[in-house]
């Protein structure tokens, strides 16, 4: 049950056994209890199976700065009183069942930076009030039922991300703010020409306008933007020819112009797919010897055809009106019948809930709801879809595993950098297997690995198996394909060999909190928990935004099958049965390395354990703690982390904390540090 997704059409506002919290759950009572925490700043209730309309009394949490209720079963509208949360800077209601219009009072949030309402049933137009939220950096409204006009957002001078994928917007493209980095407007019904102003978005990296009704010739300046890396204009009605002198930006790695009506010669910078740039141009009428191009007549619309199309449209409108009248009559009859059956269905459902779940909200029920729903629904929050890769596809992606693509050797196998057909860079881990290893069991374990989705885990994209055994008749190879994380590992940002990149204390806390969240998810967010996750600073990778992503996690799922293939009786759906304390202990050494730096940790585990006593005095801390930490931390924040580090590396297993305790302490230390930094800035301002 843990990996079953519940579709919107299957949820009708009532409890669903083994998916939502029980029928006895009251969201109103639950929120009433929460409102006693008036000093609460962060409220994240993700994937808990909470169901019902969001009560307006949530506005009593007037100190809230972040509210995330993603992946639950809330429906109806967003209560207007929530606008009283004036300190709110992040509002995330993704993957619920809200089905009203987007509120027109959103500009009441004077500090809002992130608004994410994706994967709901919001309908109607995007309100003009959105364009008044001057602080907004991320606007995500994808996968809803929004229609009409895309408002003028040019006043949002801080906006970096605009994502309105898969709605029903049918206007022309407006002028966009110049700070945008990512624009995703595919799968709508947008029409008209692409504005020349888009060629002035110099910070733009990712533009996807595919699957719309855009016409005209795309602006040449789009292709030469200094930071553009991904440009998808496929499946529109773009026409005309691109100029011969068109130039492409140095970072442009993927271009899709397929399924349009372009003619003429293709400019030289788009004329061939290379290791540097992948170009899709099929389904046009370009002058080239290729079977993927259409006849020239397909890309020409004569005046006669145009008049015929107008007549056809008029006939279609009249016919459609008559058809709508007939369908309305039938709809009324069916609606009455369905309402009667819905009442019966609710009665049966109530009996099932009472028979299978207890009333009230026990801590065990809350925990089970989280376990059941997190693995199922975290994957819907922008997580990549896992798939099977062919060996030929992986060979092509790595230029036949050329040495120039070799990234290094991890704890398991060699790792190569690859480039897929769509331009996406990936990391490919190559593992050798003995042929006696059970491939069906291995595939079952890989299927389990594919369900581990979390923002702080390196995304697992899929796998491939090569049984040709060219190198060794008794072996085959399995390839694990991951997202490519470009910014190195955490350990390199702790080293004095590169002072300008060394993280200060608050940056280290942010990284540690991200990793702790990931490990906490691996321990408690899936059934059964995945333990022994090879935790060390080298396995903490950083993306382009310096967000921590844990690699080499869940490898015990694979190694257990490889190392114990002869044990027929083992359960292929269980993770390696190593004590959970192993991860806690290893994370303790990550904390220690964050405190003292990699140079000191290089002296060995025994030396560090002996030196732990030094943390008890100020002189001892000055002697062993990294100077960067000492000059950028508050003593209270440092003391909290030193204390939890001591507990993590305690020799007695029972003395070590849970990861929930570790995470709480790190978040508390970060909050103390943020307050200290804020006070210091205020003092500096006062003296000016």
TrEMBL record:
Gene3D superfamilies: Phosphorylase Kinase, domain 1, Ribonuclease Inhibitor, Transferase(Phosphotransferase) domain 1. One of its GO terms (molecular function) is protein serine/threonine kinase activity. InterPro entries: Kinase-like_dom_sf, Leu-rich_rpt, Leu-rich_rpt_typical-subtyp, LRR_dom_sf, LRR_R13L4/SHOC2-like, Plant_LRR-RLKs, Prot_kinase_dom, Protein_kinase_ATP_BS. The lineage of its organism: Eukaryota, Viridiplantae, Streptophyta, Embryophyta, Tracheophyta. Keywords: ATP-binding, Glycoprotein, Leucine-rich repeat, Membrane, Nucleotide-binding, Repeat, Signal, Transmembrane, Transmembrane helix. The chain crosses the membrane at residues 311-335. It holds the Pfam family LRR_14. It is found in: Membrane. It comes from the Eukaryota. This is Protein kinase domain-containing protein. It is a single-pass membrane protein. ATP binds at residue 436. Residues 401-669 form the Protein kinase domain. GO terms for cellular component: membrane. The keyword Repeat applies. PANTHER family: LRR RECEPTOR-LIKE SERINE/THREONINE-PROTEIN KINASE-RELATED, PROTEIN KINASE DOMAIN-CONTAINING PROTEIN.
